[in-house]
Amino acid sequence: AVNATYCLLAIIVQIIQKIVFGKLRSIEYQHMRDKFWNFVFYKFIFIFGVMNVQSLNEVLVWMSWFTCIAFLLLLTKLCKDRFEYLSFSPNTPMYYHWKVLGLLVFIISCCLLLTVSCLTSSLMFHTSRTSYSDMHSMTFMLAECVIVTTKALHVIMRYGIHLYDIQHEDLWERKATLVYHVDLFMELLTLSTNFLHHLHMLFSGNIWLSMASLVICMQLRYIFSEIQKRLLRHKNYRRVVANMEAQFPQASREEIEAQEDQCAICWEPMENARKLPCGHFFHSACLRSWLEQDTTCPTCRKQLDIRNTIRRDRPARLVPDGLNDPSKQVTSFGVVQHRNHFWHFDGPRFASWLPSFSVEVTRSPHGAQAMVTTTTGMPTNQPSNSQLDTMVREVHDIFPQVPLQVIRNDLQITGSVEATTDNILEGHVTIP
């Protein structure tokens, strides 16, 4: 009977794959495999370490239960991966979306059915255990159903936002904000439920000083760190939004029409935009998403004055002292960031025979390290007038605030768009 049931389940999986997904992509197959073996490992620890089952009937019941949960959990993960793939394909037929949404509704219905079964049939089996143990077992089962349901609802909500957006031709600027807050709420709900579920495992039975307790403690530590990272990212998000609204004003209709340009982040026309100090315009939602990752202009890479934000692309560490060191930058969260000191001498700007060299001092926990880069100042072939005009226009498109003659004078010395761009960013070019 057990073999027949698993064979029937395998046939159902094959049918669902053929109807809803078709051929799986390699990344989807890899995610399914990793999720499956991770699930098997932790549930093996749960059955024989936390529940400490003794009879074969209990082993079969728990294996049947976790087979159903694994089936629904893997389908949810596959729906999430497929949604992320389809959402970036603008010409996807609608029936592909409806098939995935229908499968998500089926997953939630199965979770509700399992929940009702737990509540009405006394764990679907009767053993010699006490009612106290039965309550713990029922709580474990309900937690699994809640986690799967929450993940499936998260994908459905993202799908609803995406389908609403593609039905409208105009740009929906509030989409990014809505998606962010949906992700924040659902991710925190899933992590919190998972954390309480593992905490219940740790305190429900006598598993102290065992391998099961060690595995559960490691998982609790991981989930808690994920919650901290998510909350820290939200604080950073709020600071970025506050600083963006305070420092970068909304561009007027006349300024936007004078640009006749598209947002360089999403490549969509701009009806409302924010103006950066360098003269470039971007959608508010696009700029906010960009500033969460980087604090430079997306077009010209000019450093923006975003105060009290954390650069996540730079290493940071927590230190209890040394806050008065001028080479360190301390944020409001107590995170200390080490600054790199860079000095560059451009010899060919003064004489063609002089060399160019750079000195960069990097501070690390193990001390300061210096790196010197030297380039010779041998004269190179000067570009022709047509090439020079093309290079001037290219640089001027990036830095519209710099006069053309200033760009031309520097290009005649450097002969390179990259070198002139670096000189403007580093302040080596005097702008009247």
UniProtKB/TrEMBL annotation:
Keyword set, alphabetical order: Membrane, Metal-binding, Transferase, Transmembrane, Transmembrane helix, Zinc, Zinc-finger
UniProt subcellular location: Membrane
Domain (CUE): residue spans on this chain: 387-429
Coiled-coil annotated spans: none
Cross-referenced Gene3D superfamilies: DNA helicase RuvA subunit, C-terminal domain, Zinc/RING finger domain, C3HC4 (zinc finger)
Organism superkingdom: Eukaryota
GO biological process: endoplasmic reticulum unfolded protein response; protein K48-linked ubiquitination; ubiquitin-dependent protein catabolic process
Gene Ontology CC: one annotated term: cytosol
Domain RING-type: 263-301
GO molecular function: ubiquitin binding; ubiquitin protein ligase activity; zinc ion binding
Record pathway: Protein modification; protein ubiquitination
Entry membrane topology: Multi-pass membrane protein
Stretches that traverse the bilayer: 36-53, 59-79, 100-125, 137-157, 205-224
Keyword rRNA processing among UniProt keywords: no
Keyword Zinc-finger tagged: yes
Main location: membrane
Alphabetized PANTHER family for the sequence: E3 UBIQUITIN-PROTEIN LIGASE AMFR (PTHR15067:SF5), E3 UBIQUITIN-PROTEIN LIGASE RNF8 (PTHR15067)
The protein's name: RING-type domain-containing protein
Species for this entry: Ciona savignyi
